[in-house]
Amino acid sequence: MALVTRRDQDGLAIISLNRPDTLNALSPNMFVELRQHVNNIAADTDNIGCVILRGEGRSFSAGNDLKAIQAGERAPSAHFQAETLDAIEQLPQPVIAAVQGHCYTGSLELALSCDLMIAGDSAKFADTHGKWGMSPTWGMSQRLPRRIGLLAAKEMMFSGRVIGGEEAAAIGLANRCVPDDDLLDAAIEMAQTFLANSWFTLRTDKMLVNGGLQHTLADGLAFERENSPGAGPDMAERLAGFSKG
Fold it and tell me: Which of 83, 127, 149, 241 is the most exposed place for a label (fewest CB within 10 A)?
């Protein structure tokens, strides 16, 4: 059985963590399969314009699979998991996380590597590194403050408390919270609004926003001017269609 599955529809790739019996715990072998899907999608910008990352069953993911590690599973390299999250963040296409149920620690770091997030009303988010005497290496200390702000991130990290989907949306961790039964449909609907626009512009926007965040405002403005690729290959067609409309 595949630990990670992929389904494509009309320019959208839906990647699903597929270990529902373990609440999609993130084993090293699962990361190997996930990385292959990510690499394939990164190289397929002609056919894939947007990505959804989700989990089968009642949870997005309960977090890092410590049992698999104790049983001897090993990733191909020391920082393979963290580098896989970097690869998701660096995908040319926008990535939407659709989160229901557990999203703890490593799985929260996974969700944070996505550009956007829709939470189901059953979603439970927490950073439990402190509960186990562990420290983050998959990006929690960097991505969480950038997503929700310094004070809220420190409070989540220091306390380890669980927040629900509605609170996640209220503090900016998620874009919105919807009933679980509507979660995948809501993520697909969001993706379709993106896919209706120029895929060239989607990729450009993501590259400029993410790249600009590495700079001060002044340097970020210069980064945009220097790196914006200008008109896309579909601009003339889109303008012609507008004129006819």
Answer: 241
Q: What is the mean predicted confidence (pLDDT) over 234-244?
A: 82
The CATH fold assigned to 4-195 is 2-enoyl-CoA Hydratase; Chain A, domain 1 (3.90.226)
* Average pLDDT for 217-241: 93
Provide the pLDDT for residue 243: 61
Distance CA 81, CA 90 (A): 14
**Strand residues in the chain grouped as ranges (E):** 4-9, 12-17, 50-55, 95-99, 102-104, 116-120, 124-126, 163-164, 176-178
The phi, psi pair for 197, rounded to 5°, reads -90, 180
Tell me the average pLDDT of the chain: 96
Of 46, 44, 50, 41, residue with least CA distance to 12: 50
| Chain center to CA of 62 | 16
Domain edges within the chain:
4-195, 199-244
Q: How many CA atoms lie within 13 A of 171 on its CB side?
A: 19
Closest CA to 159 of 144, 176, 139: 144
What does the pLDDT look like over 67-115, one tens digit per residue?
A: 887 888 899 999 999 999 999 999 999 999 999 999 999 999 999 999 9
End-to-end CA distance of the chain: 49
Distance between CA atoms of 160 and 162, rounded to whole angstroms?
7
